[in-house]
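Entry for the shared binder. Reason: the reviewer on the internal report wants the predicted structure included alongside the sequence.
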Amino acid sequence: KMNKNSNIKISSFLKFFIPSIIGILLFMIPINIGGEVTIPIAFLSNYTVNLIGNVLPLIAVSLISISALGSILVKLIKPKNKVLNELFSVSPIWLFARITGMVLAIMSYFKIGPEFIWSESTGSMILFDLLPVLASIFLFAGLFLPLLLNHGLLEFVGALFTKIMRPIFKLPGRSSIDCITSWLGDGTIGILLTSKQYEEGFYTKKEAAIIGTSFSAVSITFSLMVISQVGLSHMFVPFYITVTLAGIIAAIIISRIPPLSRKPDTYIDGSSKKGDVDLIPEGYTTFSWGLYNALNKAEENASVKKILLDGFKNVLDMWIGVLPVVMAMGGIAVMIAEYTTFFQLLGMPFIPLLELLRIPEAVQASQTLVVGFADMFIPSVLASSIESEITRFIIAATSVTQLIYMSEVGGLLLGSKIPVNLKDLIIIFIQRTLVTLPIITLIANIIF
C-alpha cells in the first residue's frame, strides 16, 4: 500500500495510466470515421454487425435459449458450481422472462405463430435490428470495461469530481464516469458500468437507482438518428444542447422526489454508509488522494489474465442475463404499441398539457408522448408525419430525455441488479416527461 509520503513507483503509475488511457480512448473519445462521429466501442460493434450481421440474430436466439434452458436446468438440478449459479440461478419472475424471451425469439426467427408476434414492426424488429447491435456492444463493452473499472480511473476521477456530483446530484464523484460514458457512448454501457459498480459495493441502492434512471442517456449517434427521422438533422446541435439541458434539470429534480428519494441509502450487502465516503483525509489534496487510491487499485488488478477473465465474465453475464429480458419486455411493449390503442389512451391526459404549452397538433403529439415507454424510436417514427416543425422537434427531444424505454434501457435496468422495479420505471418515465416537456417547449420556442 502507498501512503502519502511514499514516492510513486513508476511501475504502479504505468499500471494505472496505460489501461485507463486505453479505456478512455475506447469508451469516451468521439472519433470521425467516414463522416460518422462515433466512439471506438460503438464503431467496433457496428463493424461486427456489418461483417456478420446475418448470423447475429441466430446467435442471439441461441444465447437466449441457452439462458432459458440453463435456468430451468439449474432450478431442477441445483448444482454446486459458483459460475453456473451466478449465470443461471434466477428468481421465478426472471425465469419466466427468460422463457418468454426464448419463445418470442424462436417465433420471430422462424416466423411461426400469429403475425403480430413476429411482424417487421414487433418481434422481428427487436430480434433482427436491436439484438445484433446489443449483442456486439455487450461483447466489446464487456471485454474492455475492466480497463475503465479496475485500474484506478474511477478512484482518481471520483476524488476530483466529488465537489460537483455530491451537491448537485447527491452522487459520489466516480459516477461522473458513468454519466460521461452514457452521454458519449451508449446508455446500455452506462447501465452496465453502474450495475457493476453497485454489485461491487461502490454505490448505495439509492445512488445506483438515480444513476441508472437519470444518466443512462442515449448516445450522440442515436440522437442523430432520432433528429434525422423527424427530418431536422440540420438542427442537431441546438437539439443536442436542448436534450442535455433538459436531462440535467430532470436529474436534479427527480433524484429529490419519490420513488428515487425513498430508495434506501444502503449497499448491496445491506450495510449502511460509514461516515462521509467522499471525505479527503488530512495531508492530501483532492488530486493526491485520487492518485493514491488509483495506484492502490491498479496494483490489485495488475495481471493480464485477470483482465481477460473479468472481461469474459462480463460478456457472459450480459448475454445470458440481459438479451432474453430485452427480447421479452421489448417485444411485448412494441406489440402493445403497434396493435392496440393502449398508448393512445394513455396519451390522452397529456392533450390539455400540450394545448396549455401551445404546441401545434397537440392530439397527434399526445400519442407519441407515452409510446416512448415501449421504444425510444417509435415517437420519432410517428412524429415524422406531423406537419409542424416545432412539434416534431419537441417530440424528438422529449423522446430522448424520457430515457426509460422498455425495449432497451428499461429492459436492461430490470435485468440488472440495480434496485428498480417496473412500477418505479413507469413513475419515473411520467415524471421525466412532465419535467422535461415544458423545458424543451420553452427552448424550442426560443430557437424557432
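Summary line for the report: The beta strands are 31-33, 36-38.
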